[in-house]
Design brief:
77% helix, 176 residues, mainly alpha
Length: 176
C-alpha cells in the first residue's frame, strides 16, 4: 500500500507536475518568437502545428496533474484517524493541523493546492483553444500573443506555487 501511494505521489508531482512546468518554457518561447520578422512562410507553417501540439500537451498534462492530485493523492492526505489516535504521522492533514509550527502548510498551502492550482489547467486549456482557433494568424496578431503569454505565465505561477507547497507538505507530512 505504501509503495502504491509513493508511486502515485511521484507520478502526480514529479512526473506530471514537472512535465507541465517544463512545457511552459517551450510554450512561452514558441509564442514569444511567433513574429513575422523572425519567420518565413515555411517557418510559420512548421512552427504553428508544433506550438498547437505543445499547448495541448501542456493543457492535458495540467489536467492529469490536478486529477491525480484531487482524486488519487488528496484522499490519502485527508484520511481521518480513528478516534483516540495519538500518533498522527500516518494522517498528514491532522498531523499538520496538530502542530502549530506546521499548521500553515495546511491552512494556506493545501488550500492553494486544492483550489487555486485548478487555474493552471483552465488557463493552459484556454491558451490551447486560442492557438487552435487563430493558428498562424497569431504571427500578425500581437494583441493576442501578449494575453496568451500572460495566461501561460499565470498558469505556470499557479502550478509552480502548488508544486512548491506540495513539496513542503510532503516533506513535513508524507502520505504513508
Amino acid at each position: 500500500m505504501q509503495l502504491e501511494r509513493e508511486t502515485w505521489t511521484v507520478i502526480h508531482g514529479m512526473v506530471l507536475g514537472a512535465l507541465f512546468l517544463l512545457a511552459f518554457a517551450g510554450g512561452i518561447a514558441g509564442l514569444w518568437s511567433l513574429k513575422s520578422r523572425y519567420l518565413t512562410a515555411e517557418g510559420i507553417a512548421e512552427r504553428t502545428p508544433r506550438l498547437l501540439i505543445g499547448a495541448w500537451g501542456m493543457a492535458i498534462v495540467a489536467w492529469l496533474t490536478v486529477f491525480t492530485g484531487t482524486w488519487i493523492v488528496y484522499p490519502w492526505y485527508r484520511a481521518r484517524p480513528p478516534d483516540g489516535t495519538v500518533d498522527l504521522a500516518g494522517y498528514p492533514r491532522y498531523f499538520l493541523l496538530d502542530n502549530p509550527a506546521l499548521s500553515a502548510l495546511h491552512t494556506f498551502g493545501m488550500e492553494w493546492k486544492e483550489h487555486l492550482a485548478w487555474l493552471a489547467p483552465m488557463l493552459a486549456t484556454s491558451v490551447a483553444f486560442v492557438i487552435l482557433y487563430y493558428g498562424s494568424q497569431l504571427v500578425r496578431r500581437q494583441e493576442l500573443r501578449w494575453p496568451l503569454m500572460s495566461a501561460f505565465t499565470l498558469a505556470f505561477a499557479a502550478a509552480g506555487v502548488a508544486g512548491l507547497f506540495g513539496a513542503l507538505i510532503t516533506k513535513a507530512a508524507p502520505v504513508n
